[in-house]
Design goal:
The chain is an all-alpha fold. It has one domain. The chain is about 80% helix and about 0% strand. The radius of gyration is 23 Å and the shape is globular.
Length: about 575
């Protein structure tokens, strides 16, 4: 093995310890990688970047919970919340499309140009994308605003005219805000490629703070419109803070409008297939809203609330791993290290299993107390709790399966192959629609989460087979022992949660205190059980905890530093 290959393995296995001490183990064979990961690789590149994103994103999750609790308490599951969730469906999906294009197309090209051509050329490419892309999104936004009445009617088949009118008004406003998000998502992807993950990970926190403020101040007068106004204020704050962070690294925005520039045309060509695949997601959400609206008032909101909770867990934990893996995989492939890219994928899959399996077990056991604690007050009834918690239970597999599909897409995007991932997206969309339509007459609203989970499972299997044919064996069998250890640790956690549930029932309490006890006691004991189980199977040790604490203490100050008024590049 070459020296630079050995160095890469050492980096992936956590050789650059935060405490400054070199890792004692020298990985001379790729098969040793998984052992290093299990025994202390929290300082690996993907692990460190994912941890950075998790820490900053956790503030977004906390504020999302507060925002949803406030919103559900004020409006409950009814026509106003249905109108809001229907109105934001397409604009939110378009923002997601911009995010994915920025991370899977723009980011690999930026990394490649920076590695092979130079930093100045890479910044020029960013200016091309920012100026030209924002103009195209502005045109799309105006078109979407004009078509909002038709788009809303197609999604609200069983809704009353008042809901349709309110949803249309909200949709127009949301479409007109969209041009702000193109530069936000491009700058976020560029910051990630430069090794900055804490500030971009805090974007949801920034948005939620403004939403909470607007809802608390003006909800009685403006209703759910306050959520849209808060989103606008949050987008403006993100735009400023991301640009300030990039200025500190030498970037200066210059509007460049060259619609026939070779780099721009190449980027747009690479975007065609992902956009088609992500357009399938729009069709999926159309079907979800249309079917949900025919099942009665509040059903769309129940589905969206459960999905938001699952997306919060998936985005915070599993999504952070996929986000951190993308530049690592791209760097490996840009250097011609295809074996290293496979190792990156295996590393990402191990981390994905490590965070999603315990969370899924915990959520499956405590989904009802979790929803009751968060939302059951004021306009949110016990019947609403039962509905949302049951939908949430069926959506739990989606936490892992959605990010699994995203992880297996990364090697294709890193090779600038955007056609193959389209097959996975199309397969998932078609399977979801077919399964949902077949089951909705029997299972009602519960057919939709079942269809989502099954469709992502099958699509992931299709994509991993295509990846195996392209790159050869991925060596996923090496994770067999790791999976067994994670399952054992999760089982230990489950036993502790059961003990906590029994103990909480013996504690005399009522009202909100009883809800807090029913969720808090099993969760605390489950956390202790998980930590003990992970140490028992030697995935976690005390030295890793100490290094993680060093990381945690530095991130808050790092975010504040990045958000200062830009000065000289660091």
């Amino acid at each position: 093995m070459r020296a630079d290959d050995n160095d890469k393995l050492l980096e992936m296995a956590g050789s650059s310890a935060i405490a400054g001490q070199p890792h004692e183990c020298r990985a001379s064979d790729p098969t040793e990688l998984i052992e290093h990961i299990e025994m202390g690789s929290s300082t690996s590149k993907i692990g460190r970047h994912a941890l950075s994103t998790v820490v900053s994103s956790s503030f977004g999750i906390i504020t999302s919970v507060l925002l949803d609790a406030l919103t559900m308490g004020l409006f409950g599951l009814g026509s106003q919340t249905d109108a809001y969730f229907i109105a934001i469906t397409i604009p939110t999906l378009l923002i997601t499309i911009m995010t994915l294009q920025a991370t899977r197309v723009v980011q690999p090209i930026f990394i490649s140009r920076r590695e092979n051509v130079g930093e100045a050329e890479a910044w020029d490419f960013v200016n091309l994308m920012m100026a030209g892309g924002t103009l195209w999104v502005a045109v799309l936004s105006v078109l979407g605003a004009l078509l909002s009445p038709l788009l809303i009617r197609a999604q609200a088949l069983g809704s009353d005219p008042g809901l349709v009118a309110l949803s249309t008004k909200l949709s127009v406003f949301m479409f007109l805000v969209l041009p702000l998000y193109l530069p936000i998502m491009v700058m976020r992807a560029i910051l990630n490629s430069l090794g900055v993950f804490a500030l971009p990970g805090a974007m949801k926190f920034i948005e939620n703070i403004f939403k909470i403020f607007f809802v608390a101040v003006a909800a009685r007068h403006l209703g759910v419109m306050t959520l849209v106004l808060g989103g606008l204020a949050g987008a403006l704050c993100q735009l400023w803070s991301f640009y300030a962070a990039l200025r500190r690294r030498g970037y200066r925005f210059k509007p460049v409008f060259r619609f026939v520039h070779p780099d721009l045309l190449r980027t747009y060509r690479l975007m065609i297939y992902p956009v088609v695949g992500q357009a399938c997601a729009i069709g999926v959400e159309f079907v979800s809203n249309a079917l949900g609206s025919t099942l009665g008032a509040g059903k769309v909101s129940a589905l969206r609330m459960a999905t938001r909770i699952v997306e919060s867990f998936g985005g915070l934990l599993a999504g952070s791993i996929v986000l951190a893996a993308m530049p690592t995989v791209s760097n490996s492939i840009s250097k011609g290290d295809h074996d290293g890219a496979k190792e990156d994928v295996r590393h990402g899959l191990f981390l994905l299993l490590l965070v999603t399996l315990p969370v899924s077990v915990w959520l499956a056991m405590l989904h009802r107390p979790f929803i009751a604690f968060l939302y059951e007050r004021m306009s949110f009834s016990a019947a609403d709790t039962a509905l949302v918690s049951n939908v949430l239970l069926l959506l739990i597999p989606y936490i892992f399966l959605c990010r699994l599909l995203g992880l297996f897409e990364l090697p294709f995007f890193a090779r600038h192959d955007t056609r193959t991932p389209l097959l996975g997206s199309v397969a998932q969309a078609l399977l979801y629609v077919v399964i949902s339509l077949l089951l909705v007459g029997i299972l009602g609203i519960y057919a939709l989460p079942i269809g989502r989970s099954l469709s992502y499972l099958i699509a992931s299997l299709v994509l991993v087979e295509l990846l195996r044919r392209r790159t050869g064996r991925l060596g996923l069998g090496r994770l067999r022992n790791s999976l067994a250890k994670i399952c054992l640790a999760s089982f230990v956690m489950a036993l502790f949660v059961l003990a906590g549930t029994w103990l909480s029932q013996a504690i005399p309490a009522s009202g909100f205190t009883a809800k807090a006890v029913a969720l808090g006691v099993p969760s605390i004991l489950g956390g202790v059980g998980l930590a003990w189980g992970l140490m028992l199977v030697r995935i976690l040790d005390l030295s890793m905890v100490k290094r993680a604490m060093v990381l945690l203490t530095g991130y808050s100050s790092r975010v504040l530093t990045l958000m200062k008024v830009p000065g000289k590049p660091s």
